[in-house]
């Protein structure tokens, strides 16, 4: 009898695990369960091409629906897992019969932080997490409309860039005193805010939305900020982050800390269960600590490691994390874990910023680049290799060493 692999979560990580296993030709009964009605798709285009109207669902799909590998996968769309019985190795679902597993993969992803202030349920207030969210927002992107973006992180700024490219009057509200305060150095945040202002985006720093006001018919008309300012808007999109989806794992007694805790091979505290993608807090051999990473590349790396483990091959996730964000003509690329750095070295590059992050022992732990992708791409790739090699460069020689 074929060994049954049940994958809970039809996002990038879960979808790629299913695809890799299906293409491997192994004697496996593969069940992929997704809470959305769509097949697995890439999320980065949601705040870029989908909002701009240049990307369709077909463009975003991880694997086309006519791919022969789908013949080896039972896909259950629109189904959510409700309980996990580890002793009996059974997963219960809302919308489908329970399924027994030999190996279980939790790729439950993350859930968006929703706005809870008064008026957040007004017509015209959106969250962006799923493809249907993006298409719903895109339908509202009409020139002359007034958009309020709540949150100055990657997603919020990509939404703002897309909105300005579609001609919307755009205001970004950010609780901290600058952009990307938890992600990037101050000079990178300032350079990015300058580019947005040049495109016509307005910012309100150091404040929050206190409440939304609606018309008599329930349509959004304005937002009251904590400074007392009233900002007229008929569309608002929140980009205030996500949290790991761990409820199923926690209720089943798996070890959870920030995310579902795993070893470097992405096995949980139950050897029959893997966790991968946004939901996993995994042991990273390169940084010698548990980390949780929300990024396309992390989902891709995790899928390969989990699939290898299921197929009986030794594999660990030891690659340096990689993040990117495209806004206007600019690309922001981050490699490694810059927040572990205690000092920075700047590399002068025409029309770009490249920063290298060293920890207290002088080890290169991260790099940040902002500029055109063709300008910053190579320095970031070289830095990623140096991080993987656990390099301890001399700061005075760092610029030249990573330019060679």
Write the layout of secondary structure elements.
Blueprint: E1 3-8, H1 12-24, E2 28-33, H2 49-52, H3 57-60, E3 73-76, E4 80-85, E5 90-94, E6 99-100, E7 103-106, E8 110-112, E9 125-127, H4 131-140, E10 146-150, H5 154-165, E11 169-174, H6 186-198, E12 202-205, E13 209-214, E14 220-225, E15 230-232, E16 235-238, E17 242-244, H7 247-251, E18 256-257, E19 259-262, E20 273-275, E21 280-284, E22 289-291, H8 296-310, E23 322-327, E24 330-336, E25 343-349, E26 352-358, E27 364-371, H9 373-388, H10 395-401
Parallel strand pairs: 1-2, 1-7, 2-3, 7-20, 9-16, 10-11, 10-16, 11-12, 19-21
Antiparallel strand pairs: 4-5, 5-6, 8-17, 13-14, 14-15, 18-19, 21-22, 23-24, 24-27, 25-26, 26-27
Helix pairs in contact: 1-8
Low-pLDDT segments:
none
CATH superfamily of the largest domain: FAD/NAD(P)-binding domain
In the CATH scheme, the class of the largest domain would be Alpha Beta
Cα distance spanning the termini: 55 Å
Do you know the CATH topology of the largest domain?
Answer: FAD/NAD(P)-binding domain
Q: Describe the largest sheet.
A: 5 strands, parallel
Task: Kindly name the structural category.
Answer: alpha/beta
CATH architecture of the largest domain: 3-Layer(bba) Sandwich
Mean of all residue-level pLDDT scores:
94
Helical run tally: 10
Number of domains: 3
Considering DSSP H and I runs of 4 or more, what fraction of the residues is helical? 10-25%
Give the overall shape, derived from the CA principal axes: globular
- Spatial order of the strands in the main sheet? 3-2-1-7-20
How many beta strands in the DSSP annotation? 27
Strand content: 25-35%
CA-based gyration radius: 22 Å
């Amino acid at each position: 009898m074929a060994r049954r692999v049940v994958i809970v979560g039809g996002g990038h990580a879960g979808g790629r695990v299913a695809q890799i296993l299906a293409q491997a030709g192994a004697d496996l009964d593969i069940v992929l369960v997704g809470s959305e009605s769509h097949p697995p798709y890439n999320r980065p285009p949601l705040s870029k091409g989908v909002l701009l109207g240049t990307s369709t669902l077909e463009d975003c799909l991880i694997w086309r629906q006519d791919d022969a590998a789908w013949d080896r996968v039972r896909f259950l769309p629109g189904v959510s897992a409700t309980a996990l019985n580890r002793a009996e190795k059974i997963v219960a679902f809302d919308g489908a019969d329970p399924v027994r597993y030999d190996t279980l993969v939790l790729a439950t992803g993350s859930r968006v932080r929703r706005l809870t202030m008064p008026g957040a349920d007004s017509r015209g207030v959106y969250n962006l997490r799923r493809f249907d969210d993006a298409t719903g927002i895109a339908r509202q992107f009409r020139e002359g409309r007034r958009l309020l973006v709540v949150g100055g992180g990657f997603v919020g700024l990509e939404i703002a860039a897309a909105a300005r490219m579609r001609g919307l009057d755009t205001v970004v509200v950010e609780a901290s005193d600058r952009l990307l305060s938890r992600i990037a150095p101050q000079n990178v945040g300032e350079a990015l805010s300058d580019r947005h202002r040049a495109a016509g985006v307005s910012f309100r720093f150091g404040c929050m939305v206190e409440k939304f006001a609606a018309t008599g018919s329930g349509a959004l008309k304005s937002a009251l900020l904590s400074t007392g300012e009233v900002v007229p808007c008929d569309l608002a999109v929140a980009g205030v982050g996500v949290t790991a989806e761990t409820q199923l794992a926690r209720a089943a007694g798996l070890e959870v800390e920030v995310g579902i805790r795993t070893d470097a091979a992405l096995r949980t505290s139950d050897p029959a269960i893997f966790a991968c993608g946004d939901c996993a807090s995994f042991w990273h051999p390169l940084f010698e600590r548990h980390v949780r990473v929300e990024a396309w590349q992390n989902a891709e790396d995790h899928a390969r490691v989990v699939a290898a483990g299921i197929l009986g091959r030794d594999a660990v996730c030891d690659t340096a994390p990689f993040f990117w964000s495209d806004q206007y003509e600019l690309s922001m690329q981050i490699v490694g874990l810059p927040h572990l750095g205690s000092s920075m070295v700047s590399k002068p590059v025409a029309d770009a910023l490249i920063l290298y992050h060293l920890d207290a022992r002088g080890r290169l732990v991260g790099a940040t680049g902002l500029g055109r992708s063709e300008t910053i791409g190579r320095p970031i790739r070289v830095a990623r290799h140096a991080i993987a090699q656990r390099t301890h460069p001399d700061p005075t020689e760092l610029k030249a060493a990573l330019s060679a």
